[in-house]
Structure to design on (113 residues):
């Protein structure tokens, strides 16, 4: 499936996910214009009716890790080195992003209390 560089699938549907963590849910949008290794690749938002109404399913954080690897590989970016180094960079980026999602959810939960 081809994705344009504006973060929208050919059908006009934005690529976003509702990710469930121990601290609450987070809307995760993908900014493909950033490149998958960029810190701005994921846009994290608190859940509200406007940004989650069109998301059909909730993905547990740990299951989203596999999706992150797929997204990083799909959108690539400037990945130096051979296949082993690239795979290691992708796994590190996915792990870092999962931690970032969890921290965001925890900060949102703390702000609500």
């Amino acid at each position: 499936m081809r994705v344009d560089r504006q973060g929208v699938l050919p059908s006009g549907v934005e690529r976003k996910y509702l990710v469930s963590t121990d601290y609450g849910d987070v809307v995760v949008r993908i900014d493909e214009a950033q490149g998958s290794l960029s810190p701005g690749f994921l846009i994290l938002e608190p859940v509200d009716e406007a940004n989650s109404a069109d998301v059909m399913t909730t993905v547990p954080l740990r299951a989203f890790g596999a999706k992150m690897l797929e997204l990083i590989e799909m959108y690539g970016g400037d990945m130096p080195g051979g296949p082993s180094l690239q795979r290691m960079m992708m796994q590190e980026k996915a792990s870092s992003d999962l931690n970032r999602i969890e921290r965001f959810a925890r900060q949102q939960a703390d702000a609500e209390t």
User: Anything to note?
Assistant: The first helix runs from residue 49 to 52. Confidence is low (pLDDT under 50) at residues 1-12.
